[in-house]
Amino acid sequence: MNSNRRHKTIAAWIAFGGLLTASCTALAQDIGPNDWLSKMVSAVQTTNYEGTVIRLQNGTVEVLKITHMIVDGVIHEKVVTQEGNGLEIIRIGNEVQCILPDKRSVLVEEWNDRSTLFSALPSSDIRFGNEYDVSIVRTERVAGRQAVLLAIRPHDEYRFGYRLWLDKETGFPLQTKLIDDAGETIAQIKFADINLEQDIPASAVTSSISTEDFRWFVTPKRTISHDVHDAWGSDDLPAGFRAVSVHTEELPGRALPVTHILLSDGLANVSVFIEADAHQKPVRQSKVGISNSYSLHLGEYRVLAVGEVPAATVERIATSMRPR
User: Fold this and answer.
1) Is 168 inside a domain boundary?
2) Is residue 202 part of a domain?
C-alpha cells in the first residue's frame, strides 16, 4: 500500500470512529438521565458479576477481586484484596465475615441491605431539584465495554458531585467518581475487567481459606425499634435534606438507647446519633476515609452527625439539631 492510500485508509477509519461515537452518544441521549439512573439501580440490585476493581480513596489504591451473585433474592458475595494480608470478605445476606489470614481470625458483623461497593450511589427514588443537575456527557469505553457517562453536579458546597460510567447495555456502573467542590476526585471505583450476567458457580463465593483453627469474633447485633416519636429536629438543614427515618438503637456499650435520624437529599445521606451523655466532651470534627463527622454537646445530650458529605454539612446539621 502506497503512502497516499495508507493515509486515506487511516483518515477513513478516524472518520468512521467519529461517526460511531456520535451515533452511540445520540442513542444514549434517547434515554433521559433519570432513566439511566433507574436502570443503574435495577442493575446493581439484580446483576451477577465477577471482576477486578481498582479503588482509589485518599490517595490510596486498592485492587480487589469481587464475585457477586443473587441466590433466591439473597446476596452472596466474595471480595479478596490482591495485595497486603490477603483479606477476604464473605457476605451472605446481612451477615459479613471478614477473614484475616495473617491474624488467623474471623470477624463476623451485621451488614445492611446496601451494596458493598456502591453504597453511595443514588437510590431508586432520587429526585433532582434545586440541589443537583444531572446530564449525559458522552459515551466512553470502560473495562472493554461501551459506557454512558453521567455527571451529577451540586449547586452548593454542602454535597459532593458524582461521575457515573454506566454500561450501555445493562446500566451497570463500571466506574464511579466522587468529586469535591474544587473539581478534584476524592474517591473512585473502576472495574479493570468484568463479566456480567454469567453463570457463577456457588464455590466462587466461598472462602478459599480454611478457618478451622481461626479465632472467631462476633460483633453484637444492634437492636432497632422503628416506632419512635421524632423528638428532635432542625429548622436550618442544608437545602434539600429531610429526615427519611427516625428510630432508636440499642448499641453495644451504651446503657441507654441512641436515637438515629437518617437525613437525605435523595443522593447524599447523613446519620445523626443523639444520646444522653452527662460527660461534657469538647467539640470534635474528624474524617475517616471519605466520611466526615462532627460532634458536640447540647445540654445533657451528645449529638454526632456523620456522612460521606463535606465537613461543612455535618457541622451545620449537628449544630442545628434541637429538641422539639
Assistant:
1) no
2) yes
Nearby residues of 153 by Cβ (< 8 Å), 6 or more positions away:
132, 133, 134, 135, 161
> Which residue range(s) make up the domain with 184?
31-129+175-217
Say yes or no: 308 and 234 in one domain.
Answer: yes
User: Tens of pLDDT along 17-62?
Assistant: 444 444 444 444 567 888 898 899 889 888 999 999 999 987 789 9
Give every CB contact of residue 48 below 8 A, 6+ residues apart in sequence.
Answer: 68, 69, 70, 196, 197, 198, 200
CATH number of the domain to which 293 belongs = 3.30.200.100
> Are 304 and 192 found together in one domain?
no
Cα distance between residue 152 and residue 48, in whole Å: 26
Residues 93 and 198 in one domain: yes
- 227 and 306, same domain (yes or no): yes
Q: What is the pLDDT of residue 24?
A: 44
List, in order, residues 6 or more apart from 179 with CB less than 8 Å away. 160, 161, 162, 163, 185, 186
Q: Are strands 215-218 and 105-110 parallel, antiparallel or unpaired?
A: parallel
Q: Which has the closest alpha carbon to 172: 146, 135, 137? A: 146
pLDDT in tens, 223-245: 666 556 668 889 899 998 988 88
| Predicted TM-score of the model (pTM) | 0.80
Please indicate, yes or no, whether residues 185 and 308 belong to a single structural domain of this protein: no
Spatial distance between the Cα atoms of 155 and 239, rounded to a whole number of angstroms: 10
H or E element at residue 39 = helix 33-46
Tens of pLDDT, residue by residue over 102-157, are 999 999 988 766 666 776 676 545 555 578 888 999 999 999 999 999 999 999 99
Query: In angstroms, rounded to a whole number, what is the distance separating the alpha carbons of residues 202 and 212?
Result: 20
Alpha-carbon gap, residue 288 to 294, rounded angstroms: 12
State whether 124 and 261 are in the same domain: no
Is residue 236 a part of any domain in this protein?
yes
